[in-house]
Write the structure tokens for this entry.
Amino acid sequence: MKQYNSIIVGGGVSGMTLALLLAANGRKVLLLEKAPTIGGGLCRFYKKGIPFDTGFHFTGGFVGTTTLHDMLTVLGIRDSIRPIFLDRENSNQFLFEEEGRMLSVPAGREQCCARFESYFPAERAAVKRYFQMVDRVIEATPSFDLRKISISPDPLDEDHVTLQHVLDSLTQDKTLQAALSVYCMCYGTRPNEVSFANHARVSVGFYDAIARVEEGGDAFIRAFRSAFKQHSIEVRCNTTIKECLDIRDRKVGRLLLSSGEEVTADECIFTIHPHEILKILPRQHFSKAFWDRVASFGSSNGFFSVFGAIDSVELAADAAPSLMSVVPRADVNLLMDPEYVGPQALAIFQSQELVRDKAVRVLTAFEPSYFQQVAFWKDSRVGCRPEAYSVYKELHASSICDRIRQVLPEYKDSFKMYDAASMLTFRDYLSTPDGSAYGIRQKVGQFNLFGKLPLRNFYAAGQSAVLPGILGAMLSSFVVARSILDQQQYNTYVSKRLCN
Ligand SMILES: Cc1cc2nc3c(=O)[nH]c(=O)nc-3n(C[C@H](O)[C@H](O)[C@H](O)COP(=O)(O)OP(=O)(O)OC[C@H]3O[C@@H](n4cnc5c(N)ncnc54)[C@H](O)[C@@H]3O)c2cc1C
């Protein structure tokens, strides 16, 4: 029977981060991935040679020495990840359809604040106060310093109030409220559920500067794969844990893998959706309260996505990527309500890819979506869906294409759709329970599944643990690695890598 120090379940960005951190600190690691390849949401797919991104399009965190910069430095892969920033002046454009109003937001917290003040002159004080509050949260959040992270940092006052509560106390202007909360759709929890602190922690990266990465998520996967070669990391794809065996004194002795092999490990860390973790844990060793708590986590929104490209557009070699958020109603809570049936929000992201030495404008559109929309076909799998589902998908994709041509009339004749994905597509490709994009909704007062589990050698990390998105996913892995490794060893390692 093979013995490992650490077994990591899930080969997405969280699992790869953990594998590298633990192996670099001398641990023998086995990384288990259910899919045929590692990468999870980072994986790209190709249509007619054009690369499209699945679950990683853009992120904040590339300006200055931020947490993302530090994490990539510690992992030794910073030089392999090359950010391409959105246009500084018009980093994100918000089209408020009902008001017939377009807001163009620049990069930079101060610049953002000034632009919002100019758009909402009567609400200057509210805008200023909002950005001051964001700054305060960032300054007071210890986990943004990799040397100070911990599983249970002292919460801030802003961790206990919802974003909506703060917005209501600042302004009654609904368009301003929507403009300040629209990034909720980029992390999946509604303004009336998310804490102001978590909203600030995610949004600050978008305010500072939004960037995509050259070669998208594939750049991360390649960098991790290459770094893995220098350490004792064994990767097994198409493999998961079938059963936990020999449980004594709240410790799991052996693990039966889906391949039929049995292995042992000092610890096993899950980086998958909490509901998928429940499918593996031995129910009888957990209290009903624990089980009910985890089972009750609600899922974030997902997206119905359309992947396309612009034919015959002459592109400047350095044309910047761009992001436009179409907001049909100035009410983000309503737009993110699973029961809402009116016109949906739409984010349209444009980037440039080199395909056979020719620059191609790639366009991805995401419409927030919930599993209810496709629940009727939940028992079907990729490749063998019923006809009615195919009709639904085709009609839905075509209505999104019409909207794209409507808001970007310059592409009326040149936009071509190459593929589309519903929540069912994402569920089956990413092995999540329901295709949600950001794992669970991280609500005020909720006690997420994070760190040590009631079985002593089992841990949980991943994007549902601390913060969603790839940044939050990686951060969760640093926190868990710190609690597994000797803290002195972790601190020395991180400090040394950051000084190099
Ligand atoms: C449509 C969409 C768009 C997104 N856009 C962005 C974006 O632009 N920016 C951003 O920061 N984030 C974005 N996200 C979120 C981002 O993809 C995630 O935050 C990130 O990929 C989470 O990484 P992870 O490692 O925690 O999980 P995942 O990437 O989901 O990896 C988990 C891995 O575990 C595997 N797995 C599942 N169950 C098992 C099992 N039982 N045994 C073994 N392996 C298992 C899965 O196959 C998967 O490879 C988007 C997500 C979606 C779906």
User: Anything to note?
Assistant: The longest strand covers residues 358-369. The two ends are 39 Å apart (CA to CA).
